[in-house]
Amino acid sequence: MHGVGVSEGITIGHAHLAIHDRLEVAHYLVPAAEVAGECARFDTAVQTVHAELEGYRNAIPSGSPPEFTAFLDLHLMILDDAMLSEAPRRLIETQRCNAEWAVKQQLDALLEQFDAIEDGYLRERKADVIQVGERVLKALLGKPGHIPVPEDLEQASILVAHDLSPADIIQFKQQQFAGFLTDLGGATSHTAIVARSLNIPAIVALHQARHLIRENDLLVVDGTQGVVIVNPDKHVLAEYRLRQDQWEIEQHKLKRLKTARSVTLDGVRVELYANIELPEDIEQVKDNRAAGIGLFRTEFLFLNRDGLPGEEEQFEAYRKVALEMGDLPVTVRTLDVGADKPLLGQERNSTNPALGLRAIRLCLSEPSLFHTQLRAILRASHYGKLRILIPMLSSLHEVEQSLHAIKKVKKDMDEEGIPYDHDIPVGGMIEVPAAALSVHVFARKLDFLSIGTNDLIQYTLAIDRTDDSVAHLYDPLHPAVLHLVSETIKGAQKAGIPISVCGEMAGDVAMTRLLLGLGLRQFSMHPAHLLRVKQQVLKTDLREIAATIRRMLKTDEPQKLRDALVQLNA
């Protein structure tokens, strides 16, 4: 079976199927005299779920990854939001429907809004809303909120589920599963993030695993390749046991590289940075000895809430990261979301959100939103080496507008006597073909550039990689993509400004030598990938790969490019 490998490694064990109750929700009319009682029943269910989540939060074992607390806090925030804690009550009062039906109606309305979000990380928060909503429904239906696990479950079991919530994973941590498999989820789902933080092999988006795998089936899980083998024969099993041993030996070797300088065999220095979503991710960044933070996504502050975060709340979050990283640089990306209703509470409909009002377009159309975030970043720059990164630039006009907005905030802060880094670097993300083709113009205005390969590939090839029907066409090795990346790097070098790659390509060890050969000297990736990429850097001689790189740039045949990549990594 094939899915999306979200946490690398190989594990072998017997399947344990997570039992998920099907939630059949009835719809009936509540007599007028009983509406108040039905509202009270809904309130009690919300309180029950709140107590459950608080209980899980308090039961988190010491030394657990910080993601556990962050994700439970997010679920508590979703539960407390008026869109889930109050809106169903209004439906009960106005429609005189039962509480279960009111929760289901409100969930359906919320999920429609999430489907319109283009950003992959934010769209996958839809799963969190479903998980919280289902907990409320279970409380109303009198069903247990947790997934039962047998007490005699063996240690090396592999959990197979339709989907998993953060609360489920915290509950399962005590069983110490050897791996996770889920039908749903993506690279930025909470299951994926937690699995990476625990260094447990995990595969998501398997679609039918929960139905096709039986309890106690022997499974081989290859999280690196995204492959599950069910009941392998003895030869396949022996091969994967050998691979598992080799993987574990390799992981021990990688840990020795933490203190090694990131330099190629021919003496070229390469800087390896980390991407983070939450301030709590700093621990993993430090553990893997990153050169700094190449991408701090700020969207987490804006999620699942009625109002926008104020300046103080944002300032404290950015300052925390700046202080934790000390003298190491931290690149803070300004808000990169679409114009969805849960964020701003505004009625906007877009036929194609991917091409609509999002990222810097949204920030420039909402000056107060942008102004508040810029003030918070600039104030935090007084406490560390912060840099500002503007996402999804497509024209010189947007660059100039962004720089003008920053200049205006600086002027206001000067007048108020607020300290900040007057020389804070400002960079731009190259995510659309227009920006890649205009790199020489952008480079004259900005201090640094960062290539967001995820969006650049999607926009170049007109492919939504989260859409299963076309995801197979998503190709980082497409000749057009390679030429855009190559020319962007050359343009930045010619202008004398730093350039990095912060998309998935940066953390893909198969692409490391290719990017080095194209001239890239700064990579930014998930912290878990950093040591493997460093290992590839240490084994690379740029002079030896130069001829292969030149040949790849002259090739327009996909298969020849793939063959050349294999040769490059041999």
Summarize the structure in short:
The protein has 570 residues and is an alpha/beta fold.
Strand order of the largest sheet: 14-13-12-11-10-9-8-15
Shape descriptor: globular
Helix count, per DSSP? Answer: 26
- By secondary-structure content and strand pairing, the structural class works out as alpha/beta
Fraction in helix: 40-55%
Low-confidence segments, given as residue ranges, are none
Could you give the count of β-strands?
15
Distance between the termini: 27 Å
- Most strands sheet: 8 strands, parallel
Mean pLDDT: 87
CA-based gyration radius: 25 Å
Strand percentage lies at: 5-15%
What does this 3D model show about the protein?
It is built from 26 helices and 15 strands. It has 570 residues and is α/β, with parallel strands linked by helices. The strands form two sheets. An eight-stranded parallel β-sheet has the order 14-13-12-11-10-9-8-15. Strand 8, helix 12 and strand 9 form a beta-alpha-beta unit. The protein starts with a strand and ends with a helix. The relative contact order is 0.10. The mean pLDDT is 87.
List the helices and strands and how they pair.
Elements: E1 4-7, E2 10-17, H1 35-58, H2 66-80, H3 82-85, H4 87-95, H5 99-115, H6 120-123, H7 126-141, E3 158-161, H8 166-173, E4 179-182, H9 190-198, E5 202-204, H10 209-212, E6 218-222, E7 227-230, H11 234-255, E8 271-276, H12 282-287, E9 293-297, H13 311-325, E10 329-333, H14 341-344, H15 360-365, H16 367-380, E11 385-390, H17 396-416, E12 426-430, H18 433-437, H19 439-445, E13 448-451, H20 453-461, H21 479-495, E14 499-501, H22 504-507, H23 509-517, E15 522-525, H24 530-538, H25 542-553, H26 558-568
Parallel strand pairs: 2-3, 3-4, 4-5, 8-9, 8-15, 9-10, 10-11, 11-12, 12-13, 13-14
Antiparallel strand pairs: 1-5, 2-6, 6-7
Helix pairs in contact: 1-2, 1-4, 1-7, 2-7, 2-8, 4-5, 5-7, 13-16, 16-17, 19-21, 23-24, 23-25, 25-26
